[in-house]
Each structure stands twice: as structure tokens, then as C-alpha cells.
Specification:
- This protein is an alpha/beta fold.
- It has 2 domains: 2-303, Aldolase class I (TIM Barrel, Alpha-Beta Barrel), CATH 3.20.20; 318-425, Conserved carboxylase domain (Cyclin A, domain 1, Orthogonal Bundle).
- It has helices at residues 10-19, 26-30, 33-38, 49-57, 63-73, 96-108, 123-135, 155-166, 185-199, 215-224, 246-252, 264-269, 286-303, 317-320, 324-336, 343-356, 366-380, 389-395, 408-415, 420-425, 433-440, 448-456, 459-467; strands at residues 2-3, 5-8, 43-48, 79-83, 113-116, 140-146, 173-178, 204-208, 229-232, 280-281.
- α6 (96-108) crosses α7 (123-135) and α16 (343-356) crosses α17.
Length: 476
């Protein structure tokens, strides 16, 4: 029998996908801490750079204090922190000394699991951050295989990247991160076996969003094929553009089976990792899950927040790949400019721009870069007449090498911009933390946690957070 384990994404990705990452305060989360800890999750996807920035800007809450309080209340289940490995709390690239300090301080404040997603699958970068994390005591380091659909993002591509990552002893686990909800059951049947074969005995997890309505079905197929850890959320922060509801996956597990009546030929072709797994089960505490869901339902009703609902399948989504949250933002921005009638044109242009740029995966920050360029192309009436600085940085490989070459004609237009020469020739400085503190005029009385916030955020934002005082851990 195969035990299926669960990573809970309610307060991190559920909150980000459905409530713009701003919906939950520390008190709302910590009031459910006991049930979250006793539910039996493998880990709780608790925080990321984006959420730490939101804590400061929107809630005036110290994100380091939030992690520390949660770790004291959630003692049995590892809390997880996510990063891109290149930046912290924004799009600004940071030197290695800063990323190393981030790993040190998240570990010191109670984070036990770190996941990293690099949309270009820069193996050297992912391994470098893995060593930083392990050096400071992070128990589990998880590398994402960020999924998309393109001529270059084949099963062979993902198997090659998985094999390279799995060779690193500091990488404990890999996971398929389908942030766009683009997986289909058919693709799962080829992708999962390819990756499983590439990584050997290392665990493989799956993370997919319900944006096209197929994620729950893809999870069941992935479980059949040997994935034994799935990422889910509890309602109301499940479904919609969020992840599958944990209850739905649990209800289907008893009915998953390879069958005891398989013929001899089928048994011979069954991968070795599936032998003996003819039934599936989980030890999750359903009472705790129900109490968690009831708590967040109350939060949603009290704060007037929308609840995730199943979505109808949208075949057009497989053309433009625009994530749900970004689609909402794009509609709003076009409406503010009285250009809402140009949405279809912008989506069609997104398809072309993505192809021009070497098929970047539509995940932060690349989705924002592609969307901005496409909007400029449409509204200006001339393709690449205006080029934002982030596209120049992308072409200069500030975010790693594009998976496929940039169209030569487009690259020429990018390189002709007046800022391009400096950006293409600029090396990322690698100052020490001591040098950065001196440059910012921060003495020894400023903690490393406060230094990191001040390094990447506006002074006024941090000052207002500190002035707000300690976090309120109660709700309501």
C-alpha cells in the first residue's frame, strides 16, 4: 500500500492565488496554528519573499516575528519558505552575501524547509543556494521543475534538468511546479515517469493550480505513477486559480488502484517504484482539516474575501499561459486606461512576445515582463517601439540564460536601447554584509533581520512597520 503525503499551501499559495497575498494577517493564520500542526501534513508552505514584503507594506507586521511566532506554535510540522535564489522581497537582484544571510535568518527564526524556483532552471544557481541553506541547518531543500508548454520544454528537457539537480547531495527533494495549471493527464503520464527515472530514489512532489480545472485529475494520475507527495489547500483557499482541495484528493484515494487483475504483460511493464502500491491512503486528521477550513471560511466571510470555486475548462489558456492573478491585474490596468477592448489583442501579442524571447515560463517575474512588453506593443501600435528595462535585463541574462535563443531581430532592437550597453556590460557587485551595512549607515544596533528589510524596501515602509508594534496574534 502507498501512503500519500500532503504539503499544505493554504496560507501561502492559496492566499496568493485567490486573495493577492494580502488577505491573511498573522492573527488569522496563527489562530488556526494548532489544527494546522495536528493535521499531519508533511510540511506547511508558510512564507515566501512576496509574502514577507506584503506583511510589511499592507499589514505593518514584522515578517521575521511572524515566522518566529508560527514556529513556536507549529512545532511538529516543518514550515516552508520559498525563494528564487536571485532576489529578496522584490525584483532587485541581490549579491550572494545577502541571499546567504536570508537563508541563515529564516533558519534561525524557525523555517525548516526551503523550496527554490528558477524559471530558467539554472542548475548552478539552485545548487549554490542549496549549499547556503544546508550550511545553516535547513532540514529539507526542495528544487522546483517549473512546468510550461513550448517546443523546448519537453520531457527530455525536464529529465535532463532533474538528473543534474538530483546529483547534488544538498538537494533532498524535487517537485513538479505547475504554477500555470497547464498539466494534462496525458502529459503527466509521460513527464512523471521520465523525471522519476532521472532522479532515482529521491522523492518527487507535485504542485499544480486548478486554472484549467484539470489539476485534481493530474494529481491522481501522478499518484498512480509514483508521486507520493501532493500540494493542496483547504477551502475556501482551494480551487479557482489556487490548488486542489485536500478533501477531494483524500476522498478519491481509496478508489485509486492499479488493480489486482492486471495481466502478466502489464505487470512486467509496471515501473519498479509502483510494485506493491495497489491501494493508497493518508494519515491526515480529517477533524483538523475540517476545523481549518471552518476557520478560514469565517475569515473570508468576515473580511469579504472571495472563495475558490471550480472553474470551467478554458482551452485558450494553453495559448497565452497568463496566470489567473495576472489576468485580473491586466484587465484592471486596461480598464483604467479605457482600453479594455484591447484585452484579446494583448493576449495574442503575449503569445508572440513569449516566442520572441525564447519561451520564458509565465511565472514571476517573467510573466510580468512578457505582459508589460506585449501591452506596450499593442498600445503603441508598433512592436518593440518601447522596451522596458526589465526586458533588457532579461536579454542580458540577469535572470539566467533563456531556454531558447531570443529572436535575432528582437535582440537587435533590445540591444539598441540607450540603456542596453550599460546593462549588458554590468557585473553584479558582490559586497559583503559588513560593506553593505557601512554603505547604508547601519550600526551594530540594527539586527540582521531589519537590515535585510531595509536593504530591499523603502525606509518609510520599514519605519511604519516598526512603529506599529508587536504582531497581534489573536483573531478576531
Amino acid at each position: 500500500m502507498g501512503e500519500v503525503r500532503f504539503v499544505d499551501t493554504t496560507v501561502r499559495d492559496g492566499n496568493q492565488s485567490l486573495w493577492g497575498a494580502t488577505g491573511l494577517t498573522a492573527g488569522m493564520i496563527l489562530s488556526a496554528a494548532s489544527d494546522m500542526d495536528r493535521a499531519g501534513f508533511k510540511a506547511i508552505d508558510f512564507n515566501s519573499s512576496i509574502h514577507m514584503g506584503v506583511s510589511v507594506r499592507y499589514h505593518k507586521e514584522n515578517p521575521w516575528e511572524k515566522i518566529k511566532l508560527a514556529a513556536k506554535m507549529i512545532k511538529n510540522t516543518p514550515l516552508s519558505f520559498g525563494t528564487t535564489g536571485r532576489r529578496f522581497l522584490g525584483f532587485k537582484r541581490v549579491p550572494d552575501s545577502v541571499m546567504s544571510l536570508v537563508m541563515e535568518r529564516v533558519a534561525a527564526n524557525g523555517i525548516r524547509r526551503v523550496w527554490i524556483v528558477d524559471a530558467n532552471h539554472d542548475v548552478d544557481l539552485i545548487i549554490k543556494v542549496a549549499r547556503m541553506a544546508k550550511r545553516v541547518g535547513i532540514e529539507e531543500y526542495v528544487a522546483a521543475l517549473s512546468f510550461t508548454i513550448s517546443p523546448v520544454h519537453t520531457d527530455e528537457y525536464y529529465a535532463r534538468k532533474a538528473r543534474e539537480l538530483a546529483r547534488c547531495e544538498d538537494i533532498d527533494t524535487l517537485y513538479i511546479k505547475d504554477q500555470g495549471g497547464l498539466l494534462t493527464p496525458e502529459r503527466v503520464r509521460t513527464l512523471v515517469p521520465a523525471i522519476k527515472e532521472a532522479i532515482g530514489e529521491k522523492p518527487l512532489e507535485i504542485h499544480s493550480h486548478c486554472s484549467t480545472g484539470l489539476a485534481p485529475i493530474c494529481y491522481l494520475e501522478a499518484i498512480r505513477l509514483g508521486v507520493d507527495v501532493v500540494h493542496t489547500a483547504v477551502p475556501p483557499l482551494a480551487q479557482g486559480t489556487s490548488l486542489p482541495a485536500v478533501e477531494n484528493i483524500l476522498e478519491n484515494l481509496p478508489y485509486l488502484s492499479h488493480g489486482t487483475n492486471m495481466d502478466e504483460a502489464a505487470l512486467k511493464t509496471m515501473p519498479s517504484w509502483l510494485w506493491g502500491k495497489d491501494k493508497y491512503w493518508s494519515n491526515l486528521n480529517k477533524k483538523c482539516l475540517a476545523d481549518m477550513s471552518a476557520h478560514f471560511q469565517q475569515v473570508a466571510q468576515h473580511a469579504g474575501l472571495s472563495q475558490g470555486q471550480p472553474v470551467e475548462h478554458d482551452a485558450y489558456y494553453y495559448n497565452h499561459h497568463v496566470p489567473g492573478g495576472m489576468m485580473t491585474t491586466l484587465r484592471r490596468q486596461l480598464s483604467e486606461m479605457k482600453k479594455e477592448d484591447r484585452l484579446h489583442d494583448v493576449l495574442e501579442e503575449i503569445v508572440r512576445v513569449r516566442q520572441d524571447l525564447g519561451y520564458p515560463i509565465m511565472v514571476t517575474p517573467f510573466s510580468q515582463f512578457v505582459g508589460t512588453q506585449a501591452t506596450m506593443n499593442v498600445l503603441s501600435g508598433e512592436r518593440y517601439k518601447l522596451i522596458p528595462v526589465e526586458i533588457i535585463q532579461y536579454a542580458a541574462e540577469w535572470f539566467g540564460s533563456p531556454t531558447a535563443p531570443i529572436d535575432p531581430n528582437v535582440l537587435d532592437k533590445i540591444a539598441s536601447q540607450h540603456q542596453a550597453k550599460d546593462i549588458f556590460n554590468q557585473e553584479l557587485p558582490q559586497p559583503s554584509i559588513k560593506e553593505l551595512r557601512q554603505e547604508m549607515g547601519l550600526g551594530s544596533g540594527v539586527s540582521d533581520e531589519e537590515f535585510l528589510l531595509r536593504y530591499v524596501m523603502m525606509e518609510t515602509e520599514v519605519d511604519k512597520m516598526l512603529a506599529a508594534g508587536p504582531i497581534n496574534i489573536t483573531y478576531p
